[in-house]
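Run log // design_07
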């Protein structure tokens, strides 16, 4: 799926998704969240209320591995309450046979509730979904660091890392933490941005380096981080050579094998 759909194309897609859901499955209120405009309104209303009533909190004890200025940069992105690009991961994730509405889902680095609402829209129960981020205004999102997650071993059936590995200087440690807190057979969904612009160009525009100096350039690179823990690869999406001059997405969904568990 293109990450650069026009607003009209996004609206048409959202309405098509909603119509499909209403026709082929039991209608639920959560289906309305498939419509970008509705998801935005719900997320914005909750953000406006929760940020004022609970305040905006940040995690100040980040362990080594978090890229400098990550919190500062992502505070600027709080207005992205629709999180359209997460659809690339959530669509294939939601049709895996071993994944169900009762699966316990962890979203790492959602930044806002938009991605969590999108998980609800794709059939996961709200009560089984948690977020983990260095920023939180929501009781639905725990403050914490992906390099040292505040969860017990073998806790989650599904773990989503949508466009968050770019803020890590230690991908291997982040992968080890995913393996640790995931249950055997868990579904792991990971997406990163592909950007043809150089670090120098991006730094000149922002005034500081955004994310890690090293970049992930393929799904093979993601899968190698997990080594022998990768079981079934359900979905991969790499940027085609003919589109290497455009901003795009790299994404994969796979199941996890845990030795000795």
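design_07 sequence
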């Amino acid at each position: 799926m293109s990450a650069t759909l026009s607003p009209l194309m996004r609206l048409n897609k959202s309405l098509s998704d909603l119509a499909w859901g209403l026709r082929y499955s039991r209608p639920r209120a959560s289906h309305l969240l498939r419509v970008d405009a509705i998801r935005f309104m719900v997320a914005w209303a909750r953000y406006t209320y929760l940020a004022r009533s609970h305040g905006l909190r940040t995690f100040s004890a980040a362990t080594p591995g978090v890229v400098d200025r990550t919190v500062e940069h992502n505070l600027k992105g709080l207005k992205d309450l629709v999180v359209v690009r997460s659809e690339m991961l959530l669509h294939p994730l939601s049709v895996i046979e071993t994944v169900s509405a009762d699966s316990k889902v962890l979203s790492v680095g959602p930044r806002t509730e938009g991605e969590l609402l999108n998980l609800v829209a794709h059939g996961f129960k709200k009560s089984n979904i948690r977020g983990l981020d260095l920023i939180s205004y929501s009781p639905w999102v725990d403050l914490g660091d992906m390099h040292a997650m505040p969860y017990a071993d073998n806790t989650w059936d599904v773990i989503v890392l949508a466009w968050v590995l770019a803020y890590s200087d230690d991908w291997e440690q982040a992968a080890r933490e995913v393996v640790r807190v995931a249950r055997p057979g868990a579904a792991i969904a990971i997406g990163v941005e592909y950007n043809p612009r150089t670090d120098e160009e991006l730094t000149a525009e922002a005034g500081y380096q955004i994310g890690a100096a090293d970049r992930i350039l393929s799904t093979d690179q993601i899968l190698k981080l997990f080594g022998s823990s990768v079981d079934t690869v359900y979905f991969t999406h790499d940027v085609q050579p003919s589109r290497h001059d455009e901003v795009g997405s790299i994404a994969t969904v796979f199941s996890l094998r845990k030795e000795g568990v």
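Confidence is low (pLDDT under 50) at residues 22-26.
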